[in-house]
Amino acid sequence: MAGGDELKLLGTWASPFAIRVKFALALKGLSYEYAEEDLASKSDLLLSSNPVHKKIPVLIHNGVPVCESNVIVEYIDEAFAGPSILSADPYERAIARFWAAYVDDKLLASWVTILFRGKTEEEKSDGKKALFVALETLEEALAKCSDGQGFFGGDNIGLVDLALGSQLSWLKTAEVMSGEKFIRSDKTPLLAAWMERFSKLDVAKAALPDVDRVVEFAKMRQARMAAAAAAAPNN
């Protein structure tokens, strides 16, 4: 690596937050060491690198840790040469940060409710409704941000593309496990075309986990949660 930079990424294979960092590293053509973390038994390196939140992902650059996925992505963009992830224009950067936060606040929260947090069918149904609303909102955002081009970043993928793209395997998992199609060409045609386009990118192929593997992971997590709930004493 140019300049003798040493990069190490602490993450978990299924984490969309770690996946988006992998996207950014691949986009910049950077080589790095990857360390898979066991979140049930966190490594001393993770705990010392992120003592505040004790969460992945963490990027360690020449021995110095950087935490929080979107912060890491912006750090990679500023620290290394290669395709720009954020625009040089302050307003466009602000808009990208807004929509990247929306993806995590609304979209991710919706499929997490469908798969894990929703305890009743009503709660899961509310999660589905919230997911459709989030996707419709992102459809409108894509129309405005892309300026008629292929990505939220215009001609090239940007921060919002990485944030949304990192959740594609989980969105497809939610579709498989709920029996509901969420990204539909008749409802959100721009997003459907965007998903096809993004999935064919080399950075996506290199980092997105296999949907079948994520489905099995989600089923195992659901089973563990159900067993824990059954074992918990009644209040």
From TrEMBL:
GO terms for cellular component: cytoplasm. Its EC number is 2.5.1.18. GO terms for molecular function: glutathione transferase activity. It catalyses: RX + glutathione = an S-substituted glutathione + a halide anion + H(+). It comes from the Eukaryota. Residues 89-229 form the GST C-terminal domain. Gene3D superfamilies: 1.20.1050.10, Glutaredoxin (3.40.30.10). PANTHER family: GLUTATHIONE S-TRANSFERASE, GST, SUPERFAMILY, GST DOMAIN CONTAINING, GLUTATHIONE TRANSFERASE. This is glutathione transferase. It comes from Lolium multiflorum (Italian ryegrass).
